[in-house]
Amino acid sequence: MLPALLALCSSGRFAGHAKGMILGMHHDWLIQEIEAASEPILASNDFLDWVNILEIYSKIDASLAGRLAQRMLAHSDPELREWASEFLSKHQECPEKPSIDKPSTLSPPLSARTFDYRRIKR
Question: N or C: which end of the chain has fewer CB within 10 A?
């Protein structure tokens, strides 16, 4: 179920519900399972998938989000590298750990409705 919900996180129509369901799962189980469940989605190299998964990770665990942001810094897509750099800068400014119990101080969720498609190279 987790991989299917992660895939829906970039859907304008279902993103909010999918993210809510993910964040409602048992925290310790999420920490153990979410990285492996995310890999097939990240393998598609879709910008929106990467930033939405980073946003979810940031609400689950700061170190989980930090690892993904570090991977994004090494990505071939310059926009993903820029996004990761901004994320890490904000994270350093806000040293408290974002968690499921506390609203994130990081960027608001990115959905298909708020995504600026002009940033995508054609």
Answer: C
**Angle in degrees, CA 67, 116, 93, rounded to 5:** 40
Q: How far apart are CA 100 and CA 74, in angstroms?
A: 27
pLDDT tens string, the chain, 122 residues long: the values are 999 999 998 888 888 999 999 999 999 999 999 999 999 999 998 999 999 999 999 999 999 999 999 999 999 999 999 999 999 998 875 545 444 444 444 444 444 444 454 555 44
The total number of structural domains in the chain stands at 1
Domain around 61: 2-119
